[in-house]
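Ticket #4471: structure output looks truncated?

Reporter: J.K.
Steps to reproduce: submitted the chain below (367 residues) through the standard prediction queue, then opened the result file.
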Amino acid sequence: MKKIILFVLLLPVVHSYAQEYRLLVGTYTSAGSNGIYVYDFNKTSGEAKLLSSVKTSNPSYLAVAPNQKFVYAVNEDNPGMVTAFQFNKDSGTLTKLNDVVSAGAHPCYISINKKGTHLVVGNYTGGNLAVIDVRENGLINQPKQIIQLKGSSVNRTRQEKAHVHATVFSPDQNYLFVPDLGSDKLMLYTVAQKSGALQPAEPPFYDVNAGAGPRHLSFHPTRPYAYLIEELSGTVSAFKFEEGKLTLLQNTSCHPMSYQGAMGSADIHVSPDGKFLYCSNRGDANSIAIFSIDQETGMIKIAGFQPTLGLHPRNFIFDPAGNFLLVANRDSDEVVIFNVDKRTGLLEDSKQRINVSKPVCLKWIKK
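Returned output as attached by the reporter:
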């Protein structure tokens, strides 16, 4: 009898362990999507169960507050907006709090500092970035600082003016990196810890190769390295990052040497254990490039390529344990979930899918 009672008591614990995360999916809403979708994610099987959705226009990028009580979404429209939501962990539902202007057209990226006191939004078409204060109750104020970028580069179709594509805090929160696809520059700002105000760092930017189109940036979790994905050239740059300074270590392709199709690299992430670097490729490739990382030098070496089993992969994300990699395939209306081999870095189809219209951004909230 004691054994039976013990088994029954353990059942709820096992269930809680198996489903510990909420997955948020931001979408483009032009094809009928509601906006943001919330799923219960089983971290053992990789299965996702829809819990709720909230209507908001083109929430193409999301930021989760450090206390996980609030979620912030860009509304990639013209004019652009930023919308604040309260998140109920028990029900998995989002409730709109308020919205403010993004201070530019087509915001495509938003980040929040570790204190949860400031947001920085990047406006792609507007070519600028804006700092927004966050109140204790999750509400957001109108932008208090707007920085307009200027410049262009060699690709007259895509680089006719500044195009901010990301706003990424350094791990120590002292700096903000802003890839400008339009000018082929990686902008760098110091961050005032109390006010969140930005000032140009010294140097204020780093040049990348002409026509590269810098897009997103990812930092190594434990080592002083940073990796920049370059959309137009389909390449990645590896940097050493120490005391606010970047030193280029390497620039290499995210595609096989024999590849001759259209370029369109998108997202980049270092694995949670810091051993591998992953890059998503759109264009004609529809793939994830996998690199091993030399922990002593920061240099990367290709380990393999994984088809995303869908079209136009945008954002991708690891589950917190690093066992799964989820890819948002925008044009095939599906999030594809891969198993991660932590020894080799290679990916294998888990057969799990999330069917959702135009997925473009994936974020976690711990249950």
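Triage note (M.O.): checked the attachment and the full token line is present. The chain has one helix and 28 strands.
Status: closed, working as intended.
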